[in-house]
Amino acid sequence: MSFLRILLVLAALAFGAPPAIAAQQPPPQSEFVPVDEIPPGEQIPAINLVAAAYGFVWVVLLGYVWSIARRLQKVEAELVDLESRKR
Amino acid sequence: MKHLTTPFIGISAAMLAVAPWIINAAPYESTMGLVQKVFYFHFPAAILFLLAATICGVSSAIFLFGKRPNADGWAIAAAELGLVFGSLTLVTGPLWARKAWGVWWVWDPRLTSSLLLWMIFSAYLLLRKYGGPGSDKLGAGMALFGMANVPFIYVSVNVWRTLHPQTSVVPTLPADMGIPLWFCFAAMTMLFLSLLSLRARLEHQRARVEALYLAEDEA
Amino acid sequence: MNSDFERLAVVDVARHYGRRKALSQINFTCASGEIVGLLGPNGAGKSTLLNILATLLAPSIGRVEYGERTVADGGAEVRARIGMLGHDLFLYPELTARENLSFFAQLYGLSDIPTIVRAALERAGLADRGDDFVSGFSRGMRQRVALERALLHEPRLILLDEPFTGLDQASASALVARLRERQRAGCMVVVATHDLDVADGLLTRAIYLKNGRIVGTDTDSRGLADRYRRAINNSGGDKPFLSADLSAEALRAKVEAPGAKVEGLSKS
Amino acid sequence: MSAFFRVAWHVMRKDLTVEVRSKEVLLTTLFFAVSVVLVFSFAIVREGRAPDDVAAGILWVAISFSGTLAMGRTFERERYNDTLRALILAPAERPAIYTGKLLGLLLLLGLVEIVLVPLIGLLFNAPILAYPGMLAALLLLGTLGFAAVGTLFAAMLVRVRSRDTLLPVLLYPITIPVMIAGVRGTAALFQAAPDESMARFWIALLIFWDAIFVTLALWTFEPVMTE
Questions:
Q1: Are residue C62 and residue C162 in the same domain, yes or no?
Q2: pTM summary value
Q3: Digit-coded pLDDT (tens) for C169-187
Q4: Which domain holds residue C226?
Q5: Chain B partners of A50 at a C-beta cutoff of 8 Å?
Q6: Do C163 and C150 have their domain in common?
Q7: CB interface of B with C, residues 111-150, below 8 Å
Q8: Residues of chain B with pLDDT under 70
Q9: ipTM for this prediction
Q10: Most A CBs within 10 Å: which of B3, B15, B83, B183, as the mutation test of the A interface?
Q11: Are residues C72 and C24 in the same domain?
Q12: Co-location of C131 and C258 in the same domain
């Protein structure tokens, strides 16, 4: 199990490395053909939407990690308490 | 196992923190422009959402028919993570759609089926929370039905809305868009798996606490 | 397919609901021709234990052996030999007594149902009211129908949950007589009750339950009330003591001291 | 196998006998279904006319709402004297008991639909007699799929305290595919230019789906009913 995890990290790092190089290049025009038309007359600037999306992902994930950690801490404290009482 | 989850979460968190720079460096999509960058988080979340559904259904079946009490912990963990990643998918999706399609929500098969799946997860968790004793078995039954639903919802909604918008960007991505995507995907998957095992661990520890309480004055 | 059994053994059974222990460390056996009473205050776990014996609940720990079998070996065969009279009587009030009995006879796959049902109605003393709705019956009449419903398929193991509540003297003694008759026919009877007056003299063995534990057993059938009180009170508050298993000998020694009359019911 | 159908038959007949005597579930369910239709027409009708294409939707909403009510009530009845426990205690196969309850419920909902469908036809000008066979097939298969899951869930929830709220909460998301198929198939028949092949497609999908639901329900009933 843990070995698998390490592999995953390495894979992730391997994937993570190339973009650093890619970042130096000037952004080339994307080749693929857009399938949809953007509707004209947008009122909301895209950056706000992107920021909101990323912000939301971060808040939810952090909140969830925190909630699991808190619940786990509580249960494990109880477990330790019980086990010490048993002896 | 216990000691590895925390660093894992740390690594994936670091990766997610770096992600905006990598994504920023990726080229602009020609027509949608900046807003397309939502996609780098949206797509992995959606895939993991489906993965959670599968894990939940399979572990419920194992729990119900294989009589393995531990499987129930995995099922409930997967359901909760499904709800979390489903929420991510369902919130980032409309934010992107607002710019790309001009509306927040379209009754597109993918959107509708995601919403339904999200509702099935919520119903499952509501049952687990308010079902009282015995809700583990009832929940497992419910999860089986939920999983069986997934492909069918997709098919039926697809036929129901034959005119679904052709907006999928996924297939023909150039490499410099693909790399940040896979980077985010790896980070999110790692986070997902570590959170899953952490959440299942919580459930298993709870079971141990219950067992200890019950054993307490037996001795 | 000989699924009959001569002996019921409860081995180290515990049942919990979440963190609440409904039952723990229950051990006893019951042989053919015995009437075992489960005595205890409300919430002692009597109903839970009966439901486990009836295969309606699975024990969290331990097992119940029906002869050589457990429920896991063959639920339906075991269930076919069990008759249960629940506290809620298990009758449809919208159906007549006859319809109720025939319906369950069909569920149990009995043959020659009209004859069986007629005989059951006669035993319940309701031969002439068989076509009346159960909703119009008095508690005592319902109870008699319900008992006959539970005994339709001549089960080996008879489980009764508080069968004496709401019965007048005549109905109660009729019930006792019917149980005695079944006892002679070689059935095992397990009765959960807190009505010590009726139970007195009926039981071949009493098991005192408190807070989900056995706090004493008693093979003497008479003068239960006194020893029951002692067993329940002695066991203390939240921490039930286990060492003081009030064995029959110990009890007799205690009871005989003040000159109580003890007639060990030497049924075996 | 014959024992299976014998038990299912007796359970169904018992349910129907009880229902014929009291008529409680039938009448309340029917009244509720009609109220649902009325409430929806108030929401939808503009200037004395309903928009086209709503009849199918309203019909299926009424069926699913009143169906939930009927399921809750029939199992409440089994709970009243703890008779569900007695059924489970019988040595009969448990899936047979499930089948009996399902058949009883189907018959009941069928009766409700016999009143509901003409009413919809009348109020919304829907051509209910244009394709009677296909409409009947859609109604039967849709109700079967819905009731198959509903019976299982209602039986599971009998012991749960908040069963009245949990039943619709669990049931609606799971049965959405059946609803979509029912609504779309019926709408294909009700529209100005009926689309037979479309309706046939949805019927085929419903058959497929019913098979999955019923199998899964029969399969899960036994382990779920033992506490």
A1: yes
A2: 0.81
A3: 888 888 888 999 999 998 9
A4: 1-81+155-168+187-268
A5: 34-35, 37-38, 95
A6: no
A7: 133
A8: 1-4, 26-36, 152-177, 216-219
A9: 0.76
A10: B183
A11: yes
A12: no
